[in-house]
Amino acid sequence: MSTPPRTDKLKLGAFFHPTGNHVAAWLHPQTQIDAGTNFAHYVEMAGIAERGKFDLMFLADAVATRDGNLEALSRWPQYMNFLDPLTLLAGLTAVTTHLGLVATATTSYNEPYQIARRLASFDHMTGGRVGWNVVTSANTSEAYNFGRDEHYAHGERYDRAEEFVEVVKGLWDSYDDGAFVRDRETGRYFKPEALHFLRHQGEHFKVRGPLHIERSPQGHPVIAQASASAVGTELAGRIAEIVFTPLHSLAQGQQIYQQLKDLAVKNGRTPDDIKIMPGLNAIVGRTEAEAQEKHAALQALIHPDVGRELLQNALRGMDLSPYRDDEPFPDEVVAGLIAQDRRRYEHMLAGKPTVREIYQKFAGARGQRTLIGSPTQVADDIEYWFANRAVDGFLIQPADAPGGLDDFVTLVVPELQRRGLFRTEYEGRTLRENLGLRRPPSRYA
Ligand SMILES: Cc1cc2nc3c(=O)[nH]c(=O)nc-3n(C[C@H](O)[C@H](O)[C@H](O)COP(=O)(O)O)c2cc1C
């Protein structure tokens, strides 16, 4: 059975890794070397994304540094020195007008009242352009900064996340829309019947409410998630409006796409209530050769300590120290892989690569899908995934910043627009309007 052609438009987000998504990007002379703490850099990046009519920009977060071998840690900036996402994004409110601003906040080491309040404030400040990436924290060391000796177990993290989001949404409905009459004649500031106490008491949280801020322009800021596990995917089907989970092949993409849309429907939502926007490491040049050259230049900068550390982590701590960089990737390591990892990394192991070749392949984009090509090639691939309903859009992860984002906006966006796949003007003012997501009614309406 053939599916009808799509009439909706592609969605685009930009992932702002400080110096770029490539692990060695900071070593490249064209990246903003102090990007982690350089506000002007983010102003520039947001300006590029908005010029490209992107739906949103996205900031990841962790509430701890990475832990591990200090030699390797000191050679890769990610999570070692960066601005708090909500604080940074609030600063960008004043220099953007349409771009959605999506910040990560963990449900494992926060309290719902504070997150509800900060995001609602931020939604007011932006006129409705805010999104929240709900994570349960991938990094175990976050526990050590919040009074715990170990991280919550995976299932418990997701239990807590579900209750956390439920409380936050309840708090966002504390006041009905239009509660604040501010009538100087009658002396009534707000309608008393429009104020609701949440009185939540659950397994993880006890929150009376109400939240002391009026319902925000979007009603609820947009909720994003990037879970990959079964329990995380189930939760996404219930709560997520954007899903950033990585997809490696078209067939796998189509399967997860359908699964998430079906889960949304099973939970009383519509397929359009959930937008699938996986990360995409796009490296674009004016020609394919130029793009390949850019990629090769970045790959050559990967330090062996960093490459080995990342690969060892991905291989669940397997020790690669007995093996030299230039020897073939050892059979005994392949034999020791659990089946799930063997399937995941099979495509990298073809053709007897060396240890160096494997860690370079893996480390550059941490095993995620990388797309290298001319503007036409990159647009072809994006169109193919979109038309075949494996995605609603992509979260573009520029390898280097700001140049990689500028290349995408200058070279690929016009091609997508020429094909009628992507907007030439923003449809609305709020993130929901641009993504085609409805504004949720209050639970008390
Ligand atoms: C694009 C993307 C962005 C993510 N951002 C964060 C983040 O900022 N902080 C975090 O702790 N985890 C982040 N994650 C990890 C996911 O939230 C999730 O924990 C991971 O995909 C494993 O899935 P699971 O939690 O269902 O096991 C991200 C994942 C992806 C794919």
TrEMBL record:
UniProt GO molecular function: monooxygenase activity; oxidoreductase activity, acting on paired donors, with incorporation or reduction of molecular oxygen
The Luciferase-like domain, residue ranges: 28-389
InterPro entries in alphabetical order: Diverse_substr_monoxygenases, Luciferase-like_dom, Luciferase-like_sf, NTA_MOA
UniProt xrefs under SUPFAM superfamilies: Bacterial luciferase-like
Tagged with keyword Oxidoreductase: yes
Residues at which FMN binds: 61, 104, 154, 158, 229
Record keywords: Flavoprotein, FMN, Monooxygenase, Oxidoreductase
Similarity remark: Belongs to the NtaA/SnaA/DszA monooxygenase family.
Record's protein name: FMN-dependent monooxygenase
